[in-house]
Design a protein that fits this description.
Blueprint (H helix, E strand, L loop, with lengths): L4 H11 L1 H5 L3 H16 L3 H8 L12 H10 L5 H5 L1
Helix pairs in contact: 3-4, 4-5
């Protein structure tokens, strides 16, 4: 009920119905936002900088691209797939 229309179609288009139904609402909402940031960022690194803007300051070596790549892989997604 919380994700409707375009947002839920976006996730279903990427993951399929079965995987989408297997996600908690928390993960669905977060994933929609991450996909939006990825699609509006010119690169994986830039998307990572936006998404990890606060936590990256605490890291000695911030590798935002790698962190984002690992996040996407949790859903069996790749940067090129998310970018469309």
């Amino acid at each position: 009920p919380y994700l409707r229309g375009r947002a839920i179609r976006l996730i279903r288009g990427m993951l399929g119905d079965e995987k989408t139904e297997g996600l908690d609402l928390f993960d669905r909402v977060q994933l929609v936002h991450v996909i939006h940031i990825c699609r509006t960022s010119p690169s994986l690194s830039e998307a990572g900088r936006v998404l990890f803007a606060v936590s990256r300051q605490r890291k000695k070596n911030a590798n935002d691209a790698d962190r984002l790549r690992k996040y996407l892989s949790r859903f069996s997604l790749e940067w090129k797939h998310v970018r469309g």
